[in-house]
Amino acid sequence: MYEYEDDEFEGARATAAAPKMQPGATRSLTSKFREFRSEKMDSYNTDINKLVIRLEKLMSGISTDAVKRKAHEQAVVSWLDDSLVNLCPSCGCSFNITRRKHHCRLCGAITCNSCSHSLSIADALKLSSKKPSEEILQMNLPDFRVCAPCSERLEHRRQKVEGKTARPIICQFYDKLQQLQLDADALLKDYLKMRSSLCSGESIYDLREAKTTRLYLVQLAEKIEQTSKSILILGTKSNEESAPRGRSLRLQQSIRMSASNFIRDKLMCLPSLPTEMELQTMRQRLQSGISSRLNQAGGSKSARVMQGAGWGTYTTSSAVVETDDPILQQINLVRGYIEQAMEAGRMDEVCSLRENLKLLESAYEQQQNHSV
Q1: Tens digits of residue pLDDT in 150-175
Q2: How many degrees, rounded to 5, is the angle at CA 310 between CA 308 and CA 316?
Q3: Greatest distance between any 2 Cα atoms in the chain
Q4: pLDDT in tens, 7-30
Q5: Cα dist. 312→201, 318, 326, 343 in Å?
Q6: What is the pLDDT of residues 184-235, one digit of tens each?
């Protein structure tokens, strides 16, 4: 027993100490493989180009008349004789009354309905190298019937064309991020304008509209945050070889940092809006201040009839000051127009008139300050 174990140990040690066998003669077949593959790929690409050329010829003389269209298709591609084919070359089923024969419009082969595909006019125009014609799309023509091999070759070309024209995913995310930031900038200007007008007691904007704008800004901030995070982790969950590193990784980190700074500086600390009670108080103060100035400038109060371009005769419901000041006259006139437009339900004109009223009141305040 012990002698057997000693012999087994000696054999294993001798095998480990023996020199490794050197490989025999070798030869490289890479060049022949590349040559063979190149011939196959050239032949495959040639077949695809032929299909595209035939497709362009089919669309160049296409007609809405079924008889003329069939004659044109047979002139471009010769169809295989029906009597020569009894079985579908793809599925091997025999043709009968229910399983009819269909010719491929690109190669002329015969297949059954299940083994053929429909190629729409819109997809055919995308595969064509020529500029798409809108007239063909408006003709509402039926689809082309093609066999499975031709459909496979056209799909290969479509994927190849889309692969060349498609932008990298990081560029698509970045475009979305840029658009979100532009929308946030424009909406932020409107929000600050609304808040300034409300805090000064003006009635140009509505408090509910300002609150809705603020809510949209918060939602935009969330979308910017999510999009920047998607850019940061883009490609990091894949295998280690394709994971971003170097400049690509620093670019993603820079985009994320820029978006975070944008949210922090512009959207994180939005100024609050006044409450309903605060808004009413400020409007009462503004109205009392304007009324006191009008009383000082005018002197006598009476009802006044005002006539404006595009408006009917309107008598103000409240007393309006008779004055020779042209700015005050315009203020009175615009106020009457605003009341008349609100009664008529023309809210778009109300907004425009309120903007004009704000400018007139601002001009009147500047005039009073200069006079003092």
Answers
A1: 988 888 888 877 776 667 888 889 99
A2: 40
A3: 136
A4: 554 555 555 555 666 777 788 888
A5: 29, 18, 21, 13
A6: 999 999 999 888 888 877 777 888 888 899 999 999 999 999 999 999 888 7
Find the angle CA(298)-CA(303)-CA(309) to the nearest 5 degrees. 95
**Local confidence band at 5 (pLDDT 50, 70, 90 cut-offs):** very low
Q: Give me the chain's average pLDDT, please.
A: 77
The residue to which tokens 């690409």 are assigned: 45
Residues 6+ apart with CB under 8 A from 151: 117, 119
The Cα–Cα gap between 351 and 345 comes to: 12
CA 280 to chain CA centroid, Å, is 42
In the block, which residue shows the tokens 């069939």?
A: 70
User: Degrees (nearest 5) of the Cα angle 108, 114, 117?
Assistant: 55
3-state secondary structure of 94: strand
**Is residue 315 a contact partner of residue 303, using CB atoms and an 8 Å limit?**
yes
Neighbours of 213 (CB within 10 A): 20
Both structure tokens of 52? 């595209």
pTM score, whole prediction: 0.44
130-137 own/partner pairs: CB under 8 Å, 24+ apart: 130/56, 133/59, 136/59, 136/62
Q: Residue 261 above 90 pLDDT?
A: yes
229-251 as b/e: b if 16+ CB within 10 A: ebbbebbeeeeeeeebeeeeeee
Instruction: Establish how many alpha carbons lie within 13 A of residue 145's alpha carbon, considering only the half-sphere containing its beta carbon.
Output: 17
Give the pair of three-digit tokens for residue 253: 């980190």
Beta-bridge partner residues of 305: 315
pLDDT in the model for residue 58: 85
Strands (E) in the chain, as ranges, are 102-103, 110-111, 116-119, 144-147, 301-302, 305-306, 314-315, 320-321
Buried residues in 187-198 as b, exposed as e (16+ CB within 10 A)? bbeebeebbebb
Give the Cα separation of 48 and 161 in Å (integer): 13
